[in-house]
Structure formats: structure tokens, C-alpha cells
Amino acid sequence: MPRLVEMAARLAPRQGYNSTSLPGLRILRSEALLEDVPVLYRPGAVFVLQGAKQGFLDGEVYRYDADHYLAVSVPVPFRMASQADPDCPLLAIYLDFDVHLAAEITAVMTGMAVKSCPSDGGEQARSLVSSPMEPSICDVLRRLLEALQEPQECTVLGPGLIRELHYRVMTGPQAGPLLATLQREGAANRVVQSLSMIRERYHEKLTVPALAQAAGMSVASYYTGFKALTGSSPIQYIKAMRLHEARLMIVRREASIATVALQVGYVSPAQFSRDFKRHFHRNPSDEVLWLREHIGEAS
After folding, report:
1. I need a surface site. Which of 33, 211, 261, 280 has the fewest CB within 10 A?
2. What's the CA gap between 79 and 135, in Å, rounded?
3. Least confident interval from 113-122, 197-206, 258-267
4. Are residues 22 and 129 in the same domain?
């Protein structure tokens, strides 16, 4: 692990998210001790090489540190805490799942029904899973960081290493619940499809009955399945999605706060500011300053 930390530190010289030459791969460097920070991760995996993070969702605690990594199957708002300081900054690799690559790997594993794909169809789909950092994961991360040091190696070997990292995550201890979500079968499939619709139309006026009808489910079964997968109600999820998208738009200076409020679906900018402060514990202007100081960009 010290070798991985050394290489990651070179690739992430500045505070916040450092992009790499490989699509969907970023390295986070953070020197701040954070508590109760709202986050919304994209589907993927987070590998912490130094420091530690904890995710909190619906009463569950998810560790991702030097001994554990976090797999995220669907975008889900949760609260996060992290341990770091200037002398020992947090260093973490963020992999965004390539949807087409994940689907291809899932199809191959399902067709072959190999032992490394331990899903018997009885697993419950889950949005977050914390798993031990196995030797196979550490090995591919080492080779990936080594390739990133050399442009030629990265160009030739990088895509294959990204594919292998997807495979290792999808066949690890969390494979059952993760694949239950990615395979999109049964009721979980309908809820996952509904999340995709919400992601595209979060700024519109969405109601639970309309979402349930679009998913082909009763309101009661839709609500229960939605809460089981995301840890929140549909209305809470939509509100969190709007607020996180607004925060990203504000920090990128895409428009004024009042305009952003309208663009994400709020009728009243005043109500938007109240909900924003309730969710992030800061008003929009202060949140932007805090993000730039502690993280570098919205997460």
C-alpha cells in the first residue's frame, strides 16, 4: 500500500479531484477532516489508499479506507465523514462505471454462470456495498497507477486495466447484491429504471403515483422498493437530486442562484435557499466557498 500511496500522491498534486488521462478515473486529494457532508456519488467504486471515509445511509455505516472499498450501483444521496490532515492527506481513486462495459461483463458472467459470479438470483439489490480490499484489487490498482505514470503505457494498457478493475469489483465479495442491481431483473429493475427517469426529469413536477405508474407498480410496492434501494422516499430523493445538481451548477458559475433554483425545478428561490441550507447546513454562497476550500469541486 505505501507504493500505491506514493504513486497516487504524484498523480494528485492539488487539493480536490485530479483528473487522469483515462476516462472515468479521478484521484481525490483532501487534507480536511469532514463530518456529516451530503454527497451524491455516480455509479462506480471508491478505493481509499490513505485516510478513511465512512458513508451513512438509512442507519447503515459503510467503511471505505485502506482495508475496504465502496461500490455504488445507483446514484444515491448519503452523508459522509472523512479523516485526513495536511501531514497525511486522504488519497482515493474514483472509478465511474462504464455502463456499456459493465453490461458486457455482466452478460458474459451470467451466461457462463462461473463460480466467480456468486449470484443465485436471490440476492437483494443494494445501492452501496462496502467490501474488503482484496489482493486482486490492490494488484490491478498498482498496475493502473504504474501505467498512469507513463503516457505510452497508459495509452496501450490503460483500457484493459480499466476493464479488469470493473471485473474485479463485479466479482468481489459484493458481487451478489451489486449484480442484482446491474442485471436489472424484477422489481429492482423497475426501480432502477425509475431512477434513470428521475435523473433525466428531476427538474419537472414528478409525483409518486405518476412514477409508480411509469414503473408498472402499485404506489405501495414502488415506495417500498424505492426506499429499500435508495434509503430515502421518492420525494426526498428528488429533492436531494435537485439540490446536488444545483450545487454543481452554482459552483461552476453556470447561472445566478435564483436562476439555478428555477432550472432545477423550484418555483420559489426563497424555498430553494431554505431547502439548500437545511440539506447542506450552509446557504448556497457559503457552500461554494466551503467546497472550493476543502474539496475543490462539488462531489
Report:
1. 33
2. 29
3. 113-122
4. yes
Whether residues 55 and 118 share a domain: the answer is: yes
The CA distances from residue 240 to 85, 161, 163, in Å, are 29, 34, 31
- What's the CA gap between 236 and 56, in Å, rounded? 16
pLDDT band at residue 115, thresholds of 50, 70 and 90? very low
The interaxial angle of helices 208-215 and 219-230, nearest 10 deg, is 90
pLDDT band of residue 296 (cuts 50, 70, 90) is low
Q: Which three cell numbers stand for residue 150?
A: 507513463
| Domain extent for 82 | 2-182
CA–CA separation, 116 and 173 (whole Å): 10
Count: domains in the chain: 2
For the segment 46-83, what is each residue's pLDDT rounded down to a tens digit? 999 999 999 999 889 999 999 999 999 888 899 999 99
Across 219-244, average pLDDT? 93
Say yes or no: 205 and 157 in one domain. Answer: no
Task: Please report the DSSP string for 88-126 in residue order.
Answer: B-EEEEEEE--HHHHHHHHHHHHHHT-TTS---S-PPP-
Distance separating alpha carbons of residues 265 and 253, to the nearest angstrom:
18
Same domain, 98 and 194: no
The answer as to whether 299 is a domain residue is no
Q: What is the pLDDT of residue 298?
A: 47
Residues 119 and 240 in one domain: no
